[in-house]
Structures are given as C-alpha cells and as structure tokens.
From TrEMBL:
The chain holds residues 210 to 463 of 463 of the full protein. Residues 1-33 form the HAMP domain. It catalyses: ATP + protein L-histidine = ADP + protein N-phospho-L-histidine. It is an enzyme of class 2 (transferase). This is histidine kinase. GO terms for molecular function: ATP binding; phosphorelay sensor kinase activity.
Amino acid sequence: ERDVKITLETGDELSSLAEDFNAMAEKIRKSEELRRNLTADIAHELRTPIAIIQGTLESIQEGVLEPTPALMLSLQEEVSRMTRLIKDLSDLSLVEAGKLELNRIKIFPAELAGKFIHFKAEAEAKGIRFDINFPRNLPAVYADPTRLVQIITNLLSNALKHTSSGRIELSAEKAEGGVVFKVQDTGSGIKKEDLPYIFERFYRAEKSRSRKTGGTGLGLAITKGLVEAHGGRIWVESREGEGSVFSFFIPSAT
Ligand code: ADP
C-alpha cells in the first residue's frame, strides 16, 4: 500500500514537473524565435515606409500625383517613422549591450511631475481622466532624470494609446530600498497569453499589429532595459477588457 502511494506521489510530482518543464521550454522556444526574427522584423519595418516613399516619389515624377502639402506631410510621417525606429534600435542595442551611460543623481519623484503635464491635456482631449499621485514623503531615488522621464513617458504613451475611456494614473509609493512607480489604465488590457512576452522586442499583441497604432514594438523592451540599467525591475498586471498596471522599482540613493 505504501509503495503504491509513493508511486502515485512521484507520478504527481513528475507530471507537475513535466508541466513546468514544458511551460519553460515553450517560453525559451518563443524567445529564440523572437530573437531569430529580429533581423527580419527590422528589414520589414524599414521596407514598408521606404516602399511608400519610393512609390509616392515615382508617382509625382510621372505626374500621376500632385505634390500637395497633404501628400508631402504623409511622406514626412513615413520618414519620422523610420527615424523613430532607428532611434529605438540604437537605444535598444545600448541597453542590451549594457553600454548605456547613466548620469545618476539623487532625485525626488515629485520634481519630475511637471514633465507629464502634457499627458493631462492629451488624455482629457480623449475624454480620459489623468491623475498624478506622488505622496509628499517619498524618498529620493538614484536615477538618470532623462531616462526616468523616458521610462514613465513610454508607459504613459502606451496607456494613452490603449485606453478609450476611464482613467490613467501615474503614482509612486515608498518600498523597501527605493520607490515603486505605477502607471495604471482602464484600457483594453492585455490577453493572458500575450502577457509573458510584451517586454520582448518587436512583440505586439495581435490587435496592435496594424501600422495605425504607430508603435515599433520596441518601447517596452527599451523601457525594461532602462529600468534594469538602474538596478530596478519592471512588471505588469493586466486583465483583458479591464485595464493594465505597469509597475517598476527604482532604488534609493544610499
Ligand atoms: P508598441 O511600439 O507596439 O507600443 P511596446 O513594446 O510599447 O510596443 O508594447 C508592446 C505591446 O504591448 C503593444 O503592442 C500592446 O499590444 C501591448 N501594450 C503595451 N502597453 C499596453 C497597455 N497599457 N494596454 C494594453 N496593451 C498594452
């Protein structure tokens, strides 16, 4: 009887181990696939705007299209898109190589609040409430102010992009050894199956794949790299249809 029980327990443990192992293998396989896709993704992302620019210029030369101000503006947008991609790629390669230079200083989170005021106007124009909630007693963090603003700006831009009603909140709270910043939205949320991968470069949840949303799929990979360069970490909680909370920890000045 005892033997049977042990066998059963072992069987249970084995199948739970096998499950863990399969989940891990799946994650590794998907990461590898994303890595191999990197070059293909870059080529693809550049090919599209170049094709549009080339086609438009040819049509203008052939007299098929008038070079109206609106047409010139659309060309400009394609150029901006390429510029953004190249800037993102160079940021990403710096953070991934650990070669990003940080000019760290002691900084109180409240000092940065002014940098995000323009989001209030943008949110309110869409009928979304926007609040910044930095309590007075927050300790100073040890951070590069430009990079810290870039991290928060990336998260707020995403929140704005994926929210059509409700509220977006930027807040911060004291934590062991530092400060946890949070960007919370009442937007589309993220599917459970997408959640493990959204910090991977070029990963975009299916409905964000269109060119309309304008993203390169590099934003969160860069954001994560910037947080980690500060010795911090970043995580997300999200429920599809309800909204998302992106949180990151930045250590205090010691
Ligand atoms: P992108 O350039 O596409 O915005 P990111 O790396 O910033 O790339 O984000 C990756 C994907 O994560 C997005 O395409 C989107 O599907 C999802 N995502 C990021 N932030 C949010 C959010 N606040 N709400 C819903 N989905 C989000």
